[in-house]
Amino acid sequence: MPGQPAIQSRGIVREHRPPATFLVELANGHRLFARVPFRQREKVPCIRPGDEVNLEISPADFSNGVLVFENK
Question: Which of 29, 34, 57, 69 is most exposed by smallest CB count within 10 Å?
Fold first, then answer.
């Protein structure tokens, strides 16, 4: 439903699947596809399997997420 806040989570990258898509495993063992937002595609080379990442997951679809990068 529109207006529901995204679920914040952390996961470990298990696999890189071009273009800018990753297979991420959560702490409970659930695996999902996470994509990188278009404007942050330059950060893709620095993400490797085994890295811990922050995710936003839609409450309507638990099979897809978006990687979240902190502004530094």
Answer: 29
d(CA 47, CA 44): 6
Q: Judge: domain 7-58, CATH 2.60.120.10.
A: no
Contact 25, 11 (CB under 8 A): yes
45 by DSSP, 3-state: which? helix
Nearest C-alpha neighbor of 53 from the set 17, 22, 28? 22
pLDDT digits (tens, 9 = 90+) for 1-49: 567 888 999 999 999 988 889 999 999 999 999 999 888 777 778 888 9
Would you say how long the chain is, in residues?
72
Q: Contact at 8 Å (CB) between 55 and 68? A: yes
Residue 44: what residue type?
V
